[in-house]
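Hi V.,

Quick status before I head out on leave. The structure for the redesign project is tokenized and pasted below; the design run finished overnight.
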């Protein structure tokens, strides 16, 4: 079986990067890699980038009532609060002021 190397995961066009991003079973390879090395993959410019757990950037979300949430799983948070993830990313980028009263900003690592 092919070995996915941690040193190659974010090096464009390396064997590991290609399996993670361009292989027909890329989701399988990402899950296999995370099970072995931990961390998580985030999408940047349409390609997946791996980050160790301690390097994961948190997103700060201010709810309409003014309370603040520190979020590490943004997709899950959006589903739980019936928010459109794309609209929330536009809030983070500054294209929108808020989405359904929620304001999101990038937090510290």
């Amino acid at each position: 079986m092919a070995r996915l190397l941690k040193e190659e995961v974010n090096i464009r066009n390396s064997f590991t990067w290609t399996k993670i991003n361009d292989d027909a079973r890329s989701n399988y390879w990402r899950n296999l890699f995370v099970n072995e090395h931990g961390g998580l993959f985030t999408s940047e410019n349409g390609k997946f980038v791996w980050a160790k757990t301690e390097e994961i950037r948190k997103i700060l979300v201010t709810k309409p009532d003014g309370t603040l949430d520190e979020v590490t799983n943004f997709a899950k948070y959006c589903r739980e609060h019936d928010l459109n993830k794309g609209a929330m990313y536009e809030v983070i980028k500054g294209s929108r002021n808020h989405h359904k009263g929620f304001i999101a900003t990038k937090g510290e690592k």
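Above is the designed sequence. Residues 59-106 form a domain with the Arc Repressor Mutant, subunit A fold (CATH 1.10.10.10).

G. will cover questions while I'm gone.

Best,
W.
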